[in-house]
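Please check this today:
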Amino acid sequence: MNDRINDPYINVFYDAILSLKTREECDKFFDDICTIAEIKSLVQRLQVAVLLNEGKTYSEITSKANVSTATISRVNRCLEYGADGYKTVLSRISINNNEKKDNEV
């Protein structure tokens, strides 16, 4: 576990996330636990990670994701030197499949 988070409820929080089975459940949980701004911030960071992983430039990412270069730099630093959390998620998700599913609904 991340040593920077020293809270006995962190595992409860992680277990809560891991218990979610559908996008609808995720939507309801995160809608209750986060503000819209917090959700958007998390989504933007993941979008930046996806775009960096695709080899996009900072300029392209700034335009597409509407984020600051500081945010891009932070995410890039995590991709390069972090705990591999982004890499794990990026290897497991398929952006094209997610976009296709969203468009079919």
Observations:
- Residues 36-53 form the longest helix (18 residues).
